[in-house]
């Protein structure tokens, strides 16, 4: 069966990564064409956001509300929601968390997470520099990273270059550190977790087969869902390694990539 024939039916899910798949970091807005695509697709498909973010956090909830997804795979699959239902919830092993944070403090690595509107990071200076370079402003609400020792944590984020991510993976084989597309940081996730696992859980919750799913992404935290969805679509601005795993490579986010991929598969023509 060629890709043009693999058209999702009415019992289908279309999943989107947020950052640099739907959300353009240059404008920090979702392009009009992508919003138009989502609105047209939702007539006959369940729309899912699959992100490394917790989409309920203060800096993400506006995009959640704008997109109005049927389901969300938060934090690389460690939290999965469908409307008001909590489908899955997993917290990082407490001993592992303590070891990771102590290691980051000892080696000057910026490691942390945002919980309940507060940003807990070791070496927050790296986060401040990153935000200023990327957005020209720092809107973080920093709190003492040591508070994380007593909080439930699902995943962590590392801000820095590839060397730091490789150092974490070498020291902690229990985790994976897929780099962000811009190579300025990485998710730090227990190896069992992935967006693909989150998608499987939503499929089970809604009674949808995995073959009736499609997934868009751009970074290496999308690699499992791109491999395992019925159709895996890498954005034109994706990291090269993800493109190698995809069934189809869409145009760049700034070239209406999401919308044009839907046109390629004739999804709009069939579901007007």
Q: What is this structure, in a nutshell?
A:
The chain has 272 residues and is α/β, with parallel strands linked by helices.
Could you characterize what this model shows?
This protein has 272 residues and is an alpha/beta fold. Helix 7 links the parallel strand 12 and strand 13 (231-234). It has helices at residues 32-41, 61-67, 94-107, 124-135, 162-171, 195-206, 223-228, 240-245, 257-264, 267-270, and strands spanning 13-16, 46-50, 71-74, 79-82, 85-89, 110-115, 118-121, 142-143, 156-159, 175-176, 185-190, 213-217, 231-234, 248-249. Helices cover 33% and strands 21% of the residues. The strands form two sheets. An eight-stranded mixed beta sheet has the order 5-4-3-2-1-12-13-14. A six-stranded mixed beta sheet has the order 8-7-6-9-11-10, with helices on both faces. The two termini are 24 Å apart.
Which residues form runs of ≥5 with pLDDT under 50? 1-10
Number of E-state strands: 14
Please describe the biggest sheet, giving its number of strands, its sense, and whether it closes into a barrel.
8 strands, mixed
The count of helical stretches stands at: 10
Tell me the strand percentage band. 15-25%
Provide the residue-averaged pLDDT: 92
Distance from N terminus to C terminus (CA atoms, Å) equals 24 Å
The gyration radius over C-alpha positions equals 18 Å
Strand order in the sheet with the most strands: 5-4-3-2-1-12-13-14
Share of helix, binned: 25-40%
Order of helices and strands: EHEHEEEHEEHEEHEEHEHEHEHH
């Amino acid at each position: 069966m060629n890709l043009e024939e693999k058209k999702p039916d009415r019992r289908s899910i279309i999943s989107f990564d947020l950052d640099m798949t739907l959300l353009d970091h240059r404008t920090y807005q979702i392009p009009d064409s992508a919003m138009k695509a989502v609105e047209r697709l939702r007539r006959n498909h369940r729309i899912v956001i699959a992100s490394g973010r917790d989409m309920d956090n203060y800096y993400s909830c506006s995009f959640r509300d704008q997109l109005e997804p049927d389901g969300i795979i938060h934090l690389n699959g460690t939290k999965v929601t469908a409307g008001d239902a909590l489908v899955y919830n997993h917290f990082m092993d407490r001993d592992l968390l303590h070891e990771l944070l102590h290691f980051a403090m000892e080696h000057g690595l910026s490691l942390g997470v945002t919980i309940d509107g507060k940003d807990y990071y070791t070496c927050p200076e790296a986060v401040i520099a990153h935000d200023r370079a990327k957005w020209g402003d720092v809107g973080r609400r920093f709190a003492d990273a040591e508070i994380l020792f007593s909080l439930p944590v699902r995943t962590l984020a590392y801000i820095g270059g590839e060397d730091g991510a490789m150092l974490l993976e070498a020291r902690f084989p229990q985790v994976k550190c897929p780099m962000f597309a811009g190579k300025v940081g990485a998710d730090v996730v227990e190896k069992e977790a992935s967006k693909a696992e989150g998608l499987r859980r939503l499929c089970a919750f809604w009674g949808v087969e995995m073959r009736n799913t499609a997934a868009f992404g751009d970074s290496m935290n999308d690699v499992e869902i791109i491999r395992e969805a019925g159709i895996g679509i890498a954005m034109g601005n994706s990291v090269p390694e993800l493109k190698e795993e995809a069934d189809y490579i869409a145009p760049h986010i700034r070239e209406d990539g999401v919308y044009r991929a839907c046109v390629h598969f004739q999804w709009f023509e069939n579901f007007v």
